Amino acid sequence: MGRYIDDILQPDEKVLYSATTHWIVYWQAILCWLVALTGLIGSRVSVNEGAVLTGLGVAAIMAAVALFYTAKAWFHRWTTETDVTTQRVVHKTGFIQRSTFEMNIDKVESVDVEQSVLGRLVGYGDVTILGVGEGKKTIRLIASPLDFRSHITTR
Q: The domain containing residue 60 runs over which residues?
């Protein structure tokens, strides 16, 4: 399966920048893996049989939940494409049920970036693209949002 952008490029159109969803989408999975690890370590250092079983049970349940969140975040990152070409901005999400957004570069009125303190520290944010007569689209949790904005607005 190829990239969506490669299938829709027009003649003489080139990809200038490809953005990705930031790794922060794994935060739930990371938290669950840490709780599972804590339960496992707790079961190994305990001498009480009840505490050992409780720790192992918590570790097993949280590992299963963490595996789900890991797969969900990975699939989201794998099926999301955000690109800036010489002619337009293209954003695609989904695999079987696909949602796409395309806006001609000439129709872009403004590009706004919102970043939390954590977003500024680790490099992610939300980018809102407002187009003349095109509406607006917010792309969430994008890596390097200022770089992405620069590739759209620099002409």
A: 26-75
Among 86, 99, 97, CA closest to 139: 99
What is the count of structural domains for the chain? Answer: 2
90: its two tokens: 């293209």
Q: What is the pTM of this model?
A: 0.86
CB 24 within 8 A of CB 121: no
Structure tokens at 36: 């599972």
Average confidence (pLDDT) per 10 residues, the chain, 155 residues: 88 95 97 96 87 92 98 97 96 94 94 97 97 91 97 88
Q: Are both 37 and 62 inside the same structural domain?
A: yes
